[in-house]
Amino acid sequence: MKNKALNSSTVLLMAVSAAIIVANINYIQPIEADIAQQFNLANAVVGAVAMLTQLGYAFGLLLIVPMGDIVNRRTLILRLLALAILSALLAFIAPNIWVYAVASLLIGVTSVAPQVIIPYAGFLAPRGQRGRVLGNVLSGLLVGVLLSRTVSGVLASVMPWQNVYLLAAVMIALLGVVLIKKLPQDPVTRHRTTYLEMIKTVPQLVKRYPVLRASAVNGFVLFGVSNVFWATLVFYLQRQYGWGSREAGLLALLGVTGVLAAPVIGRLADHFKPRTIIGLGLVLSTLAYGVFIVFGTRIAGLICGIIILDLGTQFGQVANQARIQNIDPHASSRFNSVFMFGYFMGGALGSFFGNLLWGLAGWNGVCGLAFGVLILGFYAHFVHYPHVVKRHGTVTN
User: What region holds the Major facilitator superfamily (MFS) profile domain (predicted)?
Assistant: First the structure.
């Protein structure tokens, strides 16, 4: 029977919450050129600052998200929101690149609340409906990703880019008021496990479940190649078309295709092996970069490639979440922590090396980097991990 705490309005609230909070870590991407100009920096330096946000998010996933298995998840979410507001305000008032870099790191660390919300939703959902529920919540996550780029890019074209972070702080504060009233109480009675004891179990879970390792590697690859593109898009648009942050932000709206597809992907993950859906994600991401390298000099080709790339990323995200949440509900936060750590480490390195390759070899270097990472992804998914999971895994993949 469906959990009464998880009705459609609660799922919608969780999706909206994920959208508003995750937006924080993506605001920087369309405004990198503006930041570089204001602080008189090379593009590669701003790329390194953008990497700090992703790294902060990755380590927040590793060190904070697992707490959802031992503390009240509702309380944890609300406390993270308060810290996210302070981090956004620090970015707003940053007088130089050093303060902004610290703020960027803290924004990443404190914006992990969606990764507590996602396993919470998976825990509350009936087993046969987890793919659908997770697909809906992850739709909110993707809305936050794409709208953050659009809002950031458009606002930075008409006012100082710092105002983006002031808006973020206000939106999170308003969200916090709603969640205090509407977010379901956590029904789980926790065991008396210390934080240190809980953290020590994370490597054990990674060692025990090859399917978890496979998901983390796949997330690393798919989000890595996604960020290779988004971190360099504004520079490509400047060189190719003379465009700027506004156009980069508007192009991010094309990700609505992934938003609409997420619930459908979730249903597919409920009825087919998630590994099959993940393989499709790899194929779509590779096809996207094929379109970029051949037709990327034309705006129609760029648009087509963006739609395909966002679909590929979403196929991997939803299906990976569905399969790791089916392992053991009592360790769902830790499973999500490991998966998303790999996911955002890929994003951080994708941002950094994407900017580096742009400076060294331009658009061809960016696409070549993505193809190289995708080759590793195909090897891991189709050659290495199927055999490992078959021999040692205890769940289907």
Answer: 10-389
Q: Could you give all domains of the chain from N- to C-terminal order, each with its CATH number?
A: 8-184+198-388 (1.20.1250.20)
Q: Span 142-148, mean pLDDT?
A: 79
Distance CA 220, CA 218 (A): 5
pLDDT for 119: 79
- Supply the pLDDT for residue 189: 61
Please state the three-class secondary structure of the chain as a single string.
Answer: CCCCCCCHHHHHHHHHHHHHHHHHHCCCHHHHHHHHHHCCCCHHHHHHHHHHHHHHHHHHHHHCHHHHHCCCHHHHHHHHHHHHHHHHHHHHHCCCHHHHHHHHHHHHHHCCCHHHHHHHHHHHCCHHHHHHHHHHHHHHHHHHHHHHHHHHHHHHHHCCCCHHHHHHHHHHHHHHHHHHHHCCCCCCCCCCCCHHHHHHHHHHHHHHCHHHHHHHHHHHHHHHHHHHHHHHHHHHHHHHHCCCHHHHHHHHHHHHHHHHHHHHHHHHHHHCCHHHHHHHHHHHHHHHHHHHHHHCCCHHHHHHHHHHHHHHHHHHHHHHHHHHHCCCHHHHHHHHHHHHHHHHHHHHHHHHHHHHHHHHHHHHHHHHHHHHHHHHHHHHHHHHHHHHHHHHCCCCC
- pLDDT category of residue 86 using cuts at 50, 70 and 90: very high
